[in-house]
Amino acid sequence: xxxxxTGTSKxxxxxxxxCVFVLxxxxxxxxxxxxxxxxxxMSSTQSSQxxxxxxGKKKGFSYHLVVKxxxxxxxxxxxxxxxxxxxxxxxxxxxxxVYSGNYALPFVKNFQITYQCNFASVKSSQNxxxxxxxEGTVTARIRGFCSxxxxxxxxxxxxxxxxxxxxxxxxxx
Length: 173
Known about the structure:
The protein is α+β, with helices and mostly antiparallel strands. The chain has helices at about 5-30, 150-170; strands at about 35-55, 65-70, 70-80, 90-95, 100, 110-125, 130-145.
């Protein structure tokens, strides 16, 4: 006759399941294991400042723009305006954003990201110059199972999208 102690084996199984669950949460939060199930809502505001000199009488101008964040090129864009000189070379750098609010809790995240992108012309055939900055704030509300890394990535992608939109639609106006 075999006597089993089912209480001890259930405890072992629950302990193993609990350890796997805690380990998966830790690995997910540090970015090794990517499992997210969430819904999110983003809103943003943005302002810009632009200074131009020696642009001539025409409103528009041609330019080639490179926007970088750290060492990553997030936008490489050329705008050709008819009847103008060769494109002005413009370089832009997105500074490290500032995060504030709750982006660490596992199931509810409400936080803001504040960003700034400075740009300036570096090469022009007619001594044309342009210089300015784009600043903005993205407010993120995320509900569900979402890691800190993924939450920050979602907000940063929204900031990048807004910066691209500015350069593609507003720079020449």
